[in-house]
Amino acid sequence: MKGKWRLNRRLELALIVCIAAAICSAASHATIRLLKIRFTHGGNHHYGPKDQKALTILHGSSLAYSGLDWDRVADRVGGAIESWATAGSSPAEWEFQHRRSPDATRTFIVVDPYDLNEYILCDFRADIVPLSQAISDLWRVRAEWPFCKRVLSQYPVRFVRKLFPTVGRSDGVMTGIRDWLQKMIQGQNGADSSEAVRFGAVGMSEVEERLSDWAPARLQRRLVGMRSACQGKHSFNGPKQMALARLVQRAKSQGPVTFVVVPVSPTYQREFLTPNVREEFEAALAKLHQLCPQATFVRLDGIPALQSDACFSDLVHINKYGQQIATPAFLSQLGTPPP
After folding, report:
1. For 17-47, how does the pLDDT look when each residue is reduced to its tens digit (9 = 90+)?
2. Is residue 213 part of a domain?
3. Cα gap 80→77, rounded to integer Å
4. Which residue among 34, 37, 88, 109 is least enclosed by CB atoms within 10 Å?
5. 281 Cβ contact list (under 8 Å, min separation 6)
6. CATH number assigned to the domain comprising residue 124
């Protein structure tokens, strides 16, 4: 009788745990959807004539899509462009996404100091990059254990997120709740001060927000968050660099390659791009030039008109006004020889 009582207690405990897990899972999924937090990596995007097969592939993070009007670029190059847009992506992810366009005969690769920074990790890295490749690259670069732990911990988290998609996304949840409460208080016509990163692989930008208009407190919060995300470090010699080299090798065998260097905001530059970091970034670009001498390099980061916080919607994303400067500048430089 005593053994049966213990068995019943265990079944009751297991049932309670299952019910609690189900409730938490439902709440986690509801929170993600309510706050509109992206929990899957992006799909295919097509620029240019819809009835035309895309033979040009674009690689870049959200900085690439906010910075340039790719519909207009597609019109200029005379052919459709496709991309596998993923928020926060980097060469580690682009390498594998490139394989989804085996017929591509031209490649655009958009880079910047933020996306090439090894310490900035894509939230969807484990969904795209095989674990074996991640381990191999970390071993080859002799990465330090804290960095290895950050990268490898994304893989078990990936499976936990099947039930609890908010795991590891505390910043998005907290800022999302704050933004949601502000809209509830101020109404739909209230000022849009969302801290969430906007991501949309569209052509012409409609984002009018200016970093130069941010309140000091909001700017300080974002700077603290950015410093925490990259641990206050910048490095361009690691797994991302290795993945980019492999991507370039594959892309150049298929056709012309164009590198587009987009700027980050002056505030970001002052806070994070020390003279040493700038020198290391330029060295990384020089390696790309050596790896693919025939590639076209378009430097948008040196355009004086873009050296203003008024051209950015946050620390790294170009807004509507910046895009109106960057796109014509890109088209005018397109086809020029590398530096």
Report:
1. 888 878 887 776 677 676 666 656 667 888 9
2. yes
3. 8
4. 34
5. 113, 116, 234, 236, 273
6. 3.40.50.1110
